[in-house]
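Q: How would the structure tokens look for this protein?
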Amino acid sequence: MAAGQMLDAERSLVVIVDLQGKLVDMIVHRDRVLAATVRLIRLADAFHRPVVLTEQYPEGLGLTHPDVRAAFDALAVGTRYVSKNAFGCCGEPRFEQAIRELLPDVPPERRQIVLAGIEAHVCVMQTALELLRAGSDVHVAWDCVSGRGEEHRRHALDRMQQAGAVITNLESVGFEWARTKEHSAFKAMNRLFREGQIV
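A: Here is the predicted structure in token form.
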């Protein structure tokens, strides 16, 4: 079960869900979520892990927050952008296609998906539940996840955990990917985490 497993960088992929438009300004812990998500994207780059960025109905909800989009666009690793109308990412066929392209040698039951984004109780949670049903390990970075209310966020995290997702955080993701200070990405990770405390 995912709860008993640490992340394995070779099987991991990061998904950034719908951090876009005016909705970003309505979420609790906005600044923390944005800062942590940018660091998660940069962390993925340091460890050469692919990243999928999604937007929910961008024509109506707006585009990804500029800080997040700039970090995504600067990536040297494999990336995919997916626009969707379904709330859960798995309801958009291009999402599964994107994962297959970025993790071509990893079957669904071996995938480890690190989730970030909004809203916790809608698009993030539906995505987590769908990925779990497909057999993937899901690791939800709580410091990169929010919604329009703390209760929505807290209960969504609880439900995802009850369904089998691992509730983790940015630093745990990095240290599990590294496993040892001898990892080639350790120094870059350490610098990234020292840039400023996430509150």
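The beta strands are 12-17, 51-56, 79-84, 112-117, 137-145, 166-168.

The chain has one domain: 2-194.

Upvote if useful.
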